[in-house]
Structures are given as C-alpha cells and as structure tokens.
C-alpha cells in the first residue's frame, strides 16, 4: 500500500522543473508560461533560496531544472553555494534577480549557473531562456567530486576512514548526496560496516556503464539513508574478473552528475584498477601508520598519484590503528623522514571503532576517531582552509635551490 508521503516523493523524483520566486508577479508569469508550454510536471512557489533548500531537503530527488530568486539578497553567491550542496550536481539552475549587472552575471556563469534573468519576467524572456536551449552555448556542467582513499599497507584503517568519511559527508548539515564504492571486488568489508550486503551491484554497474540512467541506478544502489548510498561486490573467490580499460572512469563520470561526493575505497595501491581510480580522482587521502614500511610506501604513493596527467590534491593522514608503544616510530621522526605535509593525525580509538562496525552505526561525536574524520571532511569540502603542500618534484627543486 502506498502512503501519501510515498506518492509525494515519487512525484518529486520525476519533477522536471521547480521555481521559487519572491513576488506574486513572477509566480504568475511562470505559471502562465508553464501552462502554455510542454512541461506538465512543474512546481512554482513563492519563496527565496532558503525556502527552496528546505523543499529540496524533503524531496526524494532534485528536479531536472531549478529556478531561484536572489532579489534583495545581500550575499547571493554564498546562498547559491548552499543551494549547490542541497541539490544534485546534474541540476540545471537558473537565477532571477532585479539587478542588470554584468559582473554578477559573469560570476554566476563561472559557478555553473545556466542563465540569469532580470525582472520583470515576460513570456518572451522565459521562452527564449527556458525553451530555446538548443541554440544557446552549452554551459559547463557542475559535477560532484571523487575522493579516493588508499592505505600504505593493510591494517592501517583505510576502509574505516573511507566508510566514516562517507557517513560524515552525507550527515553534515549541507545535506549532500554521497556514494561509497568498495573497489574490493571479492568482498570488502565496507558495505557490511554500513549494514549492507555485498551482492553484485558494482559488477552490474561496470558491465552496463553505457546504459546507466537515474532509474537504473536507483534499482541497483543500496541506500544507507536518504543521502548516503553504497555499492560493492562479492565475486566468488574462484572467479577471474578483469575490468575493461576506461570503464571505471565512465562510471565515475555518470555518478558525478548525481552525487556531490563519490568516496572510493581503493584496496590495492597499484595495478589497472587503482591507476584508473587515481586518474579520475579529484581528492586523494593516503592513510598511513607510524612505521618504517608505511613511511616508504607513503612517499611512493604520493609520488604516483601526483604524477597523473591531472593530479588529485593529496591529503596524507596518519592513523593510529594500534595502541602506542615505545617500539613504534615516533610521529615527529615519521614526519621528518617522509618530508611530506601531513594533513591530520587520527588518534587510537579501537573500542568505538569496533562497536560502530559490529552495530553498523555512526561513531559517537566524542570519539577521537570521529573527531579526526570530521576534521578530514572539513578539509575536503573546503570548510577548513589548508595547504596540502607542494608536489614532490617542487619540494625537491626547493631543496636543490637551498
């Protein structure tokens, strides 16, 4: 039996156009325009960007196109940044305002806005902007970011960092859509930490990457919450499987249109799968623990990622997966040895981690590990400014000059 709320969410998932304007004249003009146009599944409301964001948070899916009103706003660019976090990256956004300002227009276009309309809204203006898209320049589409998480060795907590980072990004107040992908095709523990089975969804996505659409994705992807999705695989250990070159990149290109962040849990440091993951990554988190082997591997990994044609921004992380003991490499000695900027350190917190994994829950905020993940999420989203450091070849050049 379908409840009224279910029907409403279903309608919102297929909505092609939604508009929020602050005055009755604009609302009337848009209503008349849509009644005389092809789209039948539209919504026109009185309200500002805050009202629009509130509606988006309740909606099952964002509309294909969205029009918002910035009239009277003292900080329209900041408000549009908040809107970007609330709606899917693939949404085409149009902005209405009262100022005929070329500088504002250029700033809006540079942020991925489709067009800027100046009031009053007339039928001819709406027809030219909203219907005649085929004859207008194609704007650069706003896409989500891919975050690769890889470890310097087994047991450093790579999957724990990736899973709880995905949770943190999705649960933040920005209301982002996040997907976690466990690239261990033979059954990584990431999906089980989220309370989901491995299944074969990732293999189906990779095998059918050319025909992916929102409806097909909805059928295949498992959801942890309304904002967090996860996908993995559990191939039989006897099965051989080779991913065709370029397929992972195609999958990430599709997903980046629908999710703000794609968190890749990369189980191996080299090979075809890892190389393609790093090739299409915007941000890379390299997790290490304070040991001689991790120090050597961390340097090699960072160099490999930064040597990609379009290198990701790399964040080196020291995690403490085991209790401190005097035989471990001291943190300061580790940092001096690798000579690579360390973005943050995460403290030892095995009890909270074990409980969260077995109960498939988020970690309590007081947990030292959870606090480290929250700091990492702030770095990746830009909420906390940081300088991850120069690429390795620039550091070598600086040393030579000295």
Q: What does this molecule look like?
A:
Helices cover 42% and strands 17% of the residues. It is an alpha/beta fold and 402 residues long. It has an 8-stranded mixed beta sheet, sandwiched between helices. A 5-stranded parallel beta sheet has the order 2-1-3-4-5, sandwiched between helices. α7 (158-171) packs across α16 and α13 (292-306) packs parallel to α14 (331-338). 37% of the residues are buried. The model is unreliable at 1-12 and 391-402 (pLDDT under 50).
Main structural class: alpha/beta
Provide the low-confidence segments as ranges.
1-12, 391-402
SSE pattern = HEHEHEHEHEHEHEHHHEEHEHEHEHEHHH
| Envelope shape | elongated
Largest sheet: 8 strands, mixed
Radius of gyration: 23 Å
Mean pLDDT over the residues: 84
| Strand elements, count | 13
End-to-end gap: 73 Å
Question: How would you write the strand order of the largest sheet?
Answer: 8-9-7-10-6-11-12-13
Range of helix content: 40-55%
Q: How many distinct helices?
A: 17
Into which percentage range does the β-strand content fall?
Answer: 15-25%
């Amino acid at each position: 039996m379908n409840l009224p709320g279910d029907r409403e969410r279903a309608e919102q998932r297929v909505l092609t156009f939604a508009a929020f304007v602050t005055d009755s004249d604009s609302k009337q003009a848009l209503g008349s325009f849509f009644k005389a146009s092809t789209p039948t599944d539209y919504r026109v409301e009185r309200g500002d960007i805050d009202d629009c964001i509130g509606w988006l948070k309740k909606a099952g899916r964002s509309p294909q196109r969205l029009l918002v009103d910035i009239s009277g706003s003292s900080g329209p660019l900041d408000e549009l940044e908040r809107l970007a976090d609330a709606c899917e990256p693939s949404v085409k956004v149009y902005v209405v305002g009262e100022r005929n300002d070329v500088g504002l227009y250029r700033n809006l276009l540079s942020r991925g806005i489709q067009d800027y309309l100046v009031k009053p809204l007339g039928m001819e203006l709406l027809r030219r902007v909203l219907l005649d898209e085929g004859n207008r320049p194609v704007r650069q589409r706003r896409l989500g970011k891919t975050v690769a998480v890889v470890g310097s060795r087994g047991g450093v907590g790579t999957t724990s960092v990736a899973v709880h980072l995905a949770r943190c990004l999705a649960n933040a107040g920005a209301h982002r859509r996040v997907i976690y992908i466990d690239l261990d095709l033979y059954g990584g523990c990431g999906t089980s930490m989220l309370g989901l089975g491995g299944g074969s969804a990732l293999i189906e996505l990779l095998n059918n990457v050319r025909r992916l659409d929102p409806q097909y994705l909805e059928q295949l992807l498992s959801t942890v919450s309304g904002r967090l999705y996860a996908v993995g695989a559990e191939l039989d250990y006897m099965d051989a499987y080779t991913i065709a070159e370029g397929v992972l990149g195609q999958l990430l290109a599709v997903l980046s249109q629908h999710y703000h962040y794609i968190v890749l849990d990369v189980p191996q440091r080299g090979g075809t799968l890892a190389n393609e993951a790093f090739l299409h990554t915007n941000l890379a988190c390299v997790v290490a623990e304070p040991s001689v082997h991790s120090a050597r591997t961390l340097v090699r990994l960072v160099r490999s990622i930064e040597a990609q044609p379009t290198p990701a921004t790399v964040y080196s992380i020291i995690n403490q997966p085991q209790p401190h003991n005097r035989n471990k490499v001291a943190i300061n000695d580790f940092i001096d040895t690798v000579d690579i900027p360390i973005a943050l350190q995460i403290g030892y917190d095995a009890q909270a981690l074990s409980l969260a994994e077995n109960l498939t829950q988020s970690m309590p905020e007081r947990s030292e590990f959870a606090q480290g993940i929250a700091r990492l999420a702030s770095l990746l989203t830009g909420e906390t400014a940081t300088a991850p450091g120069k690429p390795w070849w620039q550091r070598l050049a600086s040393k030579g000059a000295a």
